[in-house]
Specification:
Blueprint (H helix, E strand, L loop, with lengths): L3 E5 L4 H12 L3 E5 L9 H9 L4 E3 L6 H10 L3 E6 L6 H6 L1 H21 L4 E7 L23 H19 L4 E7 L1 E3 L18 H9 L6 E4 L11 E2 L1 E3 H16 L7 E6 L5 E2 H12 L5 E4 L14 H7 L7 H17 L3
Helix pairs in contact: 1-2, 1-8, 5-6, 7-11, 9-11
The structure holds UDP-4-deoxy-4-formamido-beta-L-arabinopyranose.
Length: about 350
């Protein structure tokens, strides 16, 4: 009997890539998404890649009556992978209440539903933003949280604390938080990828849209950081490597392999790359020149962060397989494929 997994936010960037990997591993996937930052058309891409079109229900998890009706109807859900959240750092500064409601209330309602409907496993989409600007690099899971640099990062810190406190008194709930560094790239088929609504806040979609002529010029936010070339440093991880880690974490919960019922892991490559270094890789692998200029720093940015991935490597038996060249090649291939799409 196939195990049924609810993927909230499953038409989003990481959610859709994870749905593909879950189907590949024999899971039955059902998606809840409010389509506030994705399109239902993503289901076509998932179906073309995997041969299976996941069941899809459109609503926001904060709509409590719809959430209850959903779980009344679907009594056969074994586990949840919870992606659904707002995730634009800059927007969260402008609209904090939207972020606290959408990211925190939805998690509370989901956990209440898990208790009511006896669902024991949840994988939570967390973020390296929980660390703030670390004093020491690379960051391990023991690195203490600094005050979050944005309401977005704070919602992820609060989310992890909610899970920790819930698991402390509910031994029948098993949870894993996955702290993503910077997810980039796209599925090799170029049938799914990152599709931000409006002007991209993140670096790589802005790079590919500039290369495609959709954006005039990329602004590099600062080159006066203490890094090899002055631009900020991040740990870029291929979205497919990230998706695979979610399936491994889910299996750890299902197979009851956890050391305790709340765990958390860094998901990065362990390598730091600056903005200018990433641009150079993009230009080299795609044989093009990118139009960019250096401007002032962006408020809220941390200077540099990259992961110590020892714990995930050891406990999850997970290693990243795709390097930065493949990240940049697949990101560009996806952007070019988008251009051929009927608008
Ligand atoms: C990366 C670097 C910018 C745009 C992201 C997500 C967050 C979390 C962590 C998952 C920074 C620079 C960017 C541009 C630039 N992920 N940049 N010009 O801020 O690290 O956060 O990863 O939870 O949700 O937002 O990612 O891609 O915005 O920025 O120079 O036009 O690129 O200053 O140094 P960030 P980003």
């Amino acid at each position: 009997m196939k195990k049924k997994v609810l993927v909230t936010g499953g038409t989003g960037y990481i959610g859709s890539h994870t749905a593909v990997e879950l189907i590949k591993e024999g899971f039955e996937v059902i998606i809840i998404d409010d389509l506030s930052n994705s399109q239902a058309e993503v289901l076509n891409g998932i179906e073309k890649i995997s041969g299976v079109r996941p069941e899809f229900v459109q609503f926001n998890l904060c709509e409590e009556d719809k959430l209850t009706a959903f779980f009344e109807k679907h009594r056969d859900i074994d586990s949840i992978i919870h992606f659904a959240a707002s995730k634009a750092v800059g927007e969260s500064v402008e609209k904090p209440l939207l972020y606290y409601k959408n990211n925190v209330l939805s998690l509370v309602l989901l956990l209440e539903a898990m208790k009511k409907y006896n669902i024991s496993n949840i994988v939570f989409s967390s973020s390296c933003t929980v660390y703030g600007q670390p004093d020491k690099l690379p960051v391990t899971e023991a690195t203490p949280f600094k005050p979050a640099e944005s309401p977005y990062g704070n919602t992820k810190q609060i989310g992890e604390e909610i899970l920790r406190d819930t698991c402390k008194v509910n031994k029948d709930i098993q949870a894993i938080s996955l702290r993503y560094f910077n997810p980039v790239g796209a599925h090799d088929s170029a049938l799914i990828g990152e599709l931000p609504n409006g002007v991209p806040a993140n670096l790589v979609p802005f790079i590919t849209q500039t290369a495609a002529g959709i954006r005039q010029q990329l602004m590099v936010f600062g080159n006066d950081y203490s890094t090899p070339d002055g631009s900020a440093m991040r740990d870029y991880i291929h979205v497919v490597d990230l998706a695979v880690a979610h399936v491994i974490a889910l299996k750890r919960l299902i197979d009851k392999k956890q050391k305790n019922n709340y765990e958390f892991f860094n998901l990065g490559t362990g390598k730091g790359l600056t903005v200018l270094q990433l641009i150079q890789v993009f230009e080299k692998v795609n044989n093009l020149k990118l139009n960019y200029k250096v401007v002032d720093r962006r408020a809220g940015d941390v200077e540099k962060i990259y992961a110590d991935t020892t714990l995930a490597n050891k406990e999850l038996g997970w290693e990243t397989k795709l390097g930065v060249e493949e990240m940049m090649r697949s990101a560009w291939k996806w952007q070019q494929q988008l251009a051929t799409k009927k608008v």
